[in-house]
Amino acid sequence: MKCPxxxxxxxxxxxxxxxxxxxxxxxRRLCDDCGKRxxxxxxVETIPLIIIKKDNNREQYNRSKIEKGVxxxxxxxxxxxxxxxxLVDEVEVEIFNREEREIPSSLxxxxxxxxxxxxxxxxxxRFASVYREFKDVNxxxxxxxxxxx
Length: 149
What we know:
The structure is a single chain. This protein has 149 residues and is an alpha+beta fold. 44% of the residues lie in helices and 21% in strands. The chain has helices spanning 63-73, 81-97, 105-119, 121-131, 137-148, and strands at residues 11-18, 24-31, 37-43, 50-52, 58-60, 102-104. Strands 1-2-3 form a three-stranded antiparallel β-sheet, with no helix packed on it. Strands 5-4-6 form a three-stranded mixed β-sheet. Helix 3 packs antiparallel against helix 4.
């Protein structure tokens, strides 16, 4: 690693620890030539995930969109922020473990609904009503009947 102060390549790691996000390593380094210290971060390189939307447009994966949808579904429900974060983390892990470069948004929606169904029935129905675009009360009732069986 090249020193940012004197450009020497004669540096060494004096401390390593996980970074705040737990997805990278923070390393304190010391330049043996000028004696100055600096910090570097090491992170796993990931392939950008592309989401295929319903209209076949493609866009880069955005975690905040999943968070927003789940938050809306869980609004005024007895669900903690920690539970929501855990749910979104689980969805994200499942998506990235597929090791595919492109994934349909419909699959992400189904994964989210499976997790919400386990967490809270009302949040599940709220999410499903928006995701599945219920057109009328009958469609809504059919989804409720599936849950009651």
